[in-house]
Amino acid sequence: MIKGAPIKGFSKLSKEAKIQWLVSEYLNGDESHIDFLNSYLHPEAKVQKLHDEFIENTITNYYLPLGVAPNFLINGRIYALPMAIEESSVVAAAAKSANFWLERGGFSSTVLSTVKIGHVHFMFFGDGNKLNSFIERNKQKFFEDTNHITSNMQSRGGGILDIQLVNKTDQLDGYYQLEARFETCDSMGANFINSCLEQMAKTLTILLAESDEFTESEKEIQVVMRILSNYTPECIVRSEVTCPIDQLNADEEISPKEFAEKFYRAVRIAEIEPYRATTHNKGIFNGIDAVVIATGNDFRAVEAAGHTYASRSGRYSSLTHCDISDGMFRFWIEIPLALGVVGGLTSLHPMVRFSLALLGKPSASELMGIVAASGLAQNFAALRALVTSGIQKGHMKMHLLNILNQLEATDEEKNFFVNYYKDKVVTYSETVRKFCELRGIPVETFAHLHKK
Ligand code: MEV
Fold it and tell me: Which H/E stretch holds residue 36?
């Protein structure tokens, strides 16, 4: 039996009617949910309307904290990085890494290339060589027909860089691509690229239909899709930190040399072992996604590109690399990052505008360097903890506040626990036990929290 209620025309209901319907169909008619959802609305109607209109069917706002990791020395400039993220230890870890490298020359970021790619995916069941020479001869027509879309971008130094036919028939019968490479300057460029590709598909269809070089059946190409690729192996940035090994002094319990060796091996393990690489890269994206979200960029696109890039050898591998030779420690990341600082959410979302202002209104290339450094810093912090004291010490310290908030602890109780754990490792069960002892209540009071 199907459970739940279907509805037609949900998007046409007012926000209030949508909420009312959800409450009666899914929330047992409990009207307290209405006040709860309304309590998350922005007090300024104009700002709320902006948020309402970002997506369809908005019922309220969903908050993420915006934290700041200061002291990021990147290419000779000190940034305070805006980070939107829910995971308790991420901003602290970034700030710790930033401080560590601030005293050792900071991060050096270089944009290696900024080209993006899109395809018209189509089927053609004829002579591929003939099609290729036809497209080569008619290339100019694709540029001319897209001129109305590209002229603005061209005046900013971008546009379509080149177009070529790619024959994929060895993998799928009849499958060809019209592959175009784009420079989109300070914008991420998804809409621009997709508009160009849609026009290119039209041009291709018309050119073939009007040509007398092809048979009637050859002319009947099938355009399957016109879409940018989020895999951007030619939109790459590299960020690096380096210092003499003897300046590493990571921890009192481990010498700089031993630290460098263990760190190097931790990176090597992530390079050869996909199980570890996945967690290793997840940690990198803790830093990357947080800045990407704060600056209004598409973190799903960034993640997708990063993971494909990490698999480019045929085996999923680390996005960072390390070298310890000639007495020097070198640690770097190379990653595709298709980012924008104009268009999309960048000028609309008030928090995004703030974040970009905090970064000094960077260009897209500068932002690529900043975001790559935040990923490298996050990975450095994680590996530094993993090869020394372990991550739980720092992790649980940051998580303590979440546990205490779950227990609805007072500020006084929170202060007590910060002191209590100064020389102990935080655990959930010990926090609950001690909390109950302090309040003189049975531990079972919080049994329901365990069940969640
Ligand atoms: C946790 O969010 C991220 C780490 O697991 C990353 C890593 O293991 O490298 C700490």
Answer: helix 32-38
3-class SS shares of the chain: helix, strand, coil, % to 5: 50, 20, 30
Our answer to whether residue 366 is catalytic in this structure is no
Residue 447, φ and ψ in degrees, nearest 5:
-55, -35
Per-residue pLDDT of 83-107, as tens digits, reads 999 998 999 999 999 999 999 999 9
Q: Is the CB of 267 under 6 A from ligand 1?
A: no
Read off the pLDDT of each residue in 305-321 and give the average, rounded to a whole number: 98
Catalogue all structural domains in the chain, each as residue range(s) with its CATH number: 1-63 (no CATH), 67-112+235-389 (3.90.770.10), 116-228 (3.30.70.420), 394-451 (no CATH)
User: CB of 224 closer than 6 A to ligand 1?
Assistant: no
Among protein residues, the one whose CA lies closest to atom 2 of ligand 1: 283
Q: In testing the pocket of ligand 1, which one of 282, 333, 387, 397 has its CB within 8 Å of the most ligand atoms?
A: 282
pLDDT band at 271 (very low <50, low <70, confident <90, very high): very high
Is residue 280 within 6 Å of ligand 1 at its C-beta? yes
| 416 pLDDT above the threshold of 60 | yes
